[in-house]
Amino acid sequence: MPPNVDDFPTDFLSHEADFVENKMAINNCISDILRNGGMCIVNLVLVVLVMTKNNSFFCRVVHAVSNASQIAQANVVEAQRCMKLMTVEMRGRAPHLKKNMQTKINLYRDELQGLIRDLERAQLMAREENTMSSTANQKSQYERLIKNNDRLTKSSKKLEDTHRIVAETKEVGITVLNTLAQQRESLLGTHEKVRETGAMTTEARRILQRMTRRIITNTLVLYTIIFVLIAAICYVLYVDFIRATR
């Protein structure tokens, strides 16, 4: 018949209870790792679909997986310590009790080895899923970088076009200024010619005025001479004919 629980030493039962508690904690940690790994897959899908710019959710999931792995490793170490203490409690016990205690320890060792394998598989799956999520995140960042680079290229092209338009406008402005300068020189030359023409016209007017005065003077002198000659002729006729007749 199997031995009664009361037949086992109290310390053995205490270590056994601690082992069972650590075993349950390891199992819970494995579940947390697998669940958070599934959340990583969901985050991967969200990253691919909406190209999210905020990856804080992904970081929290990775942190949760890391914490669960650390807690599980600590529980594994504690469970192994409990098994060692249970093995120590076997010393000096009755053969039949020692055999039953060894059977329990072997059973717990197999269970712990199975949990360790499950933990390693869960950690491996979580790492693979995290790698996939990280790759998708890097891909989204690369695509955003490409888009930003395209926008910068377009902005640079627009800026170059603006510089080219400004340069062309500057050249047109310089050409217009040169044309205006030439027209100004032409206007100044024309103004100088007008001044010279005005001076020549004034001089011609003065000459014409002098000539007019001379013509008037000569005309008056001529009329005076004619008048004097007529008077002289009349006097001569008067003297020669009229006085002679008397």
UniProtKB/TrEMBL annotation:
Q: List the top taxonomic levels of the source.
A: Eukaryota, Sar, Stramenopiles, Oomycota, Peronosporomycetes
Residues annotated as coiled-coil are 98-162
| Membrane-related topology note | Single-pass type IV membrane protein
Question: Which terms are listed as keywords in the entry?
Answer: Coiled coil, Membrane, Protein transport, Transmembrane, Transmembrane helix, Transport
Membrane-spanning residues? 33-51, 215-238
Which GO MF terms are attached to this record? SNAP receptor activity; SNARE binding
Q: Where in the cell is it found?
A: Membrane
Name of the protein: Vesicle transport v-SNARE N-terminal domain-containing protein
UniProt record similarity statement: Belongs to the VTI1 family.
* Biological processes annotated in GO: protein transport; vesicle fusion
The question of whether Transmembrane is a record keyword is answered with yes
The answer to whether the entry has keyword Chaperone is: no
Instruction: Name the predominant localization.
Output: membrane
Q: Its GO CC terms?
A: endoplasmic reticulum membrane; ER to Golgi transport vesicle membrane; Golgi apparatus; late endosome membrane; SNARE complex
Protein origin, superkingdom: Eukaryota
